[in-house]
Design goal:
Order of helices and strands: EEHHEEEHEHHEEEHHHHHHEHEHHE
Low-confidence stretches: none
Number of helices: 14
Helix content: 25-40%
Structural class: alpha/beta
Strand content: 15-25%
Distance between the termini: 20 Å
Largest sheet: 5 strands, mixed
Number of domains: 2
Number of strands: 12
Bound molecules: adenosine-5'-triphosphate, magnesium ion
Strand order of the largest sheet: 9-8-7-10-11
CATH topology of the largest domain: Nucleotidyltransferase, domain 5
CATH architecture of the largest domain: 2-Layer Sandwich
CATH class of the largest domain: Alpha Beta
Shape: globular
Mean pLDDT: 96
């Protein structure tokens, strides 16, 4: 898995003999170099010679994905395991479901050649072809692992974008993107301090939320839209932040960071509280890199005193492994011929067996 944060690759090797209780046998991470990150970021908006740059980056990425696969297999030890398939999400550079596409960079044939394994990629197109958003795709996996018969549970993935899964007793599983999680905070600290991300939310904690800026950010039409809905860098970018007014750049930069953290917290809290209305004893479990943002967790707890806020580690899956494991699970579903999307989540007309298969 490599997500919208553009921070790098997260990999797991998992045993799905018991699908609802997968066992992680190995895990590996590979950060992107500053240059690769910047080349990928350049491709998320229109520019010259895009086709050639996209094809070349797909090759570069596939070499890195293959290195992660090799590291995972090595960790599993001699004798190894018969690997059924590599599930590889690829790197999203455009997400435009309303126009009928979502584009992830990966060269599946090259990855199959480099690993000698079956490779499954392009998980989103099938759902979009059936009229869905192509996102979020992880709720089916959350449902399989984390649902409780009587306790209302919500799973919040804090990647570049935040996506929420609602596991409410007696109700079909739902979910949607709630807006930005880390991508604006990452972008702003990168611009101002040259850092990849705000560790622990420490820099945001030095600033003060600016109410007028926050209100102007919360006025983005995405927050008012009803589900099914998904979003990406097309909606939330530094250019959009700066278009809020020239005064953004005249504020102390740490105040802008504090406001961006509050934007994530408020938009998430609003979505959680709307979903949980009428339920008591709801539990919210955080995953993704943003689960390590101490300040963000603190704000979520303050904004939602009625909800127990924990991490998926409490449910047996470390926060950093959930997304990678979800795409391994989706690859498993593809091999089993099972639908991977949930129409109630994505808005697709029907369930779809997701992913394109490249044989080695
Ligand atoms: N210690 C930390 N403190 C604060 N934020 C962190 C920390 N560690 C990681 N992060 C944030 O998490 C981000 C990476 O999270 P993750 O890999 O889950 O997101 P992603 O790549 O966008 O994945 P996806 O799109 O699948 O959700 C980083 O860019 C950073 O913003
Ligand atoms: Mg990541």
């Amino acid at each position: 898995m490599s997500g919208t944060s553009l921070d790098g690759i997260d990999g797991v090797l998992a045993d799905f003999s018991r699908p609802a209780r997968p066992v992680v046998l190995a895990q590996a991470q590979r950060p992107f170099s500053v240059d690769l990150r910047s080349d990928l970021l350049d491709l998320t908006h229109p520019g010259v010679n895009e086709l050639e740059r996209a094809a070349r980056l797909s090759q570069t990425l596939s070499t890195l994905y293959a290195e992660v696969v090799h590291e995972l297999v090595q960790q599993a030890g001699p004798g190894g395991f018969p690997v059924a398939a590599v599930g590889c999400h690829g790197q999203t550079v455009r997400h435009r479901p309303e126009q009928g596409f979502s584009l992830q960079l990966v060269n599946g044939a090259l990855l199959a050649e480099l690993t000698g394994m079956a490779v499954i990629t392009d998980f989103r197109s099938g759902d979009i072809a059936a009229g869905g958003q192509g996102a979020p795709l992880v709720p089916a996996f959350h449902d399989a692992l984390f649902r409780h018969a009587s306790i209302p549970r919500l799973i919040l993935n804090l990647g570049g974008i935040a996506n929420l899964t609602l596991l409410l007793p007696g109700q079909v599983t739902r979910g949607h993107d709630t807006g930005p999680a880390n991508l604006l905070m990452d972008g702003w600290i990168g611009r101002c301090l040259g850092q990849a991300f705000d560790r622990g939310g420490d820099w945001a904690a030095q600033g003060r939320c600016h109410p007028a800026l926050l209100e102007s950010l919360l006025a983005h039409p995405f927050f008012q839209r009803s589900a099914p809905k998904s979003t990406g860098r097309e909606d939330f970018s530094l250019e959009w932040l700066e278009s809020r007014g020239a005064w953004v750049s005249s504020l102390p930069p740490e105040d802008v960071q504090a406001t961006l953290l509050e934007l994530t917290a408020r938009s998430v809290a609003e979505a959680v509280q709307t979903a949980c209305r009428g339920y008591e004893g709801a539990e919210l479990y955080l995953c993704g890199g943003g689960a390590l943002n101490v300040q963000l967790t603190k704000r979520l707890r303050t904004l939602m005193p009625e909800v127990r806020v924990g991490r998926t580690d409490d449910l047996g899956v470390p926060a950093q492994q959930v997304e990678a494991l979800a795409f391994a699970w989706l690859a498993w579903a593809r091999v089993q011929g099972k639908a991977g999307n949930l129409p109630a989540v994505t808005g697709a007309r029907h369930g779809v067996v997701l992913g394109a298969l490249y044989s080695p």
